[in-house]
Design goal:
- The protein has 214 residues and is an all-alpha fold.
- The chain folds into two domains: 51 residues; 138 residues.
- It contains seven helices and no strands.
- It is rod-shaped, with a radius of gyration of 42 Å.
- The termini are far apart.
């Protein structure tokens, strides 16, 4: 045995065997640690991914809530603007209606009511128009300008005809009919356009599908 041991190199062979077995053992431990490390990394990554997804979902929900509240507020403001405008239109129509019924307020009172209602509508619109889209604000401004111009143009002739001659009264009647014709045709058309734009703001879903309620 000693001869064989010496023939094989003695201590040198022993060291080689030990070194070989040592490398194998170290490689085994390293592979084991690497697998464990990979598992920990995968678990940590999955956890962080779930945390990120949860945070994104929370942010999405919060964003949706904010948008819903803003849309609710916009719908409220649009309704208030239209309410003010409608009050001005009703007062103006009552003032300009050709058939004035017995028992109604006199025309001076109706003129004062129409003037006050239109001013209130203009002032409210000016404060709240930021809630409207550019197009809706444009149409609303156009509509209110038509109302204002219709009122002012006729009211000047009405006041001029007070105590005037027959010619002035005939001109006043002519302007009266022209104002009524305008408010029932040209101004009415702009009002329909405004209502359409406002409905788009109140119910964007119907605007997207083209199903606007008329």
């Amino acid at each position: 045995m000693q001869a064989i041991w010496i023939a094989l190199g003695g201590n040198a062979v022993f060291l080689v065997v030990v070194a070989f077995l040592g490398r194998k053992l170290i490689a085994h431990w390293l592979d084991k640690d690497l697998d464990s490390f990979k598992q920990r990394i995968a678990q940590a990554g999955s956890l962080e991914l779930e945390k990120t997804r949860a945070a994104l979902q929370i942010a999405t929900n919060e964003h949706s809530i904010i948008l819903a509240k803003l849309q609710e507020k916009r719908a409220e403001v649009v309704g208030d603007i239209y309410d003010h405008i409608a009050s001005g239109v009703q007062a103006l129509e009552s003032y300009l209606r050709p058939l004035q019924l017995v028992g109604e307020a006199n025309r001076d009172a109706k003129a004062a009511l129409a003037r006050g209602s239109l001013i209130a509508a203009l002032e409210f619109y000016d404060r709240k128009q930021i809630w409207l889209t550019v197009e809706c604000a444009r149409v609303a401004g156009k509509f209110m300008e038509e109302l204002r111009e219709t009122f002012n143009t006729y009211d000047i002739f009405r006041q001029s005809a007070v105590g005037g001659d027959e010619k002035a009264k005939r001109e006043e009647n002519k302007q009266w009919m022209a104002a009524w014709d305008r408010i029932t045709k040209e101004v009415a058309e702009t009002r329909r356009e405004l209502e359409l734009e406002m409905r788009k703001l109140i119910d964007p879903a119907s605007a997207d599908t083209g199903q606007i309620v008329k």
